[in-house]
Amino acid sequence: MKGIILMGAALALLGLLGLAIPEFSTTQTKDVAKIGDLKIQANEETAHAVPPMLAGGALILGLALVGVGYMKT
C-alpha cells in the first residue's frame, strides 16, 4: 500500500503546484538557417496554462489516494 500513498502524495503535490503556478513558459532553440559552418538560431518561447479544474482534481484525487492508502495499512 506504500505505492498508493506515494502516488497520491505525488499527485497532490502536482495539483498544488498547478494551483500555485497556473502559467509557465518553455524556451526552445531552433535552427533557422545553416550555411556551411554558419548557423542562425532563434529562441522560441511557448506559454502553457494549467486549467484550475485539472489542478484541483489532481489535488483531491491525490489526497483521496493517500487516505485510502492509510486506511488499507
Describe this structure in words.
With 73 residues, the protein is of the alpha+beta class. 55% of the residues lie in helices and 34% in strands. It has helices at residues 2-20, 52-72, and strands at 23-35, 38-49. Strands 1-2 form a two-stranded antiparallel sheet. A hairpin with a 2-residue loop joins strand 1 (23-35) and strand 2. Helix 1 (2-20) packs antiparallel against helix 2.
Supply the key terms.
elongated, 73 residues, 2 helices, 34% strand, alpha+beta, 2 strands, two-stranded antiparallel sheet
Number of helices: 2
What separation lies between the terminal Cα atoms?
Answer: 7 Å
Main sheet: strands, sense, barrel:
2 strands, antiparallel
Major beta sheet, strand line-up: 1-2
- Based on CA atoms alone, the radius of gyration comes out at 20 Å
Silhouette: elongated
Q: How much helix is in the residues?
A: 40-55%
How many separate structural domains? 1
Query: How much β-strand is present in the residues?
Result: 25-35%
Helical/strand content category:
alpha+beta
Strand-and-helix sequence, N→C? Answer: HEEH
Give the averaged pLDDT, no decimals: 93
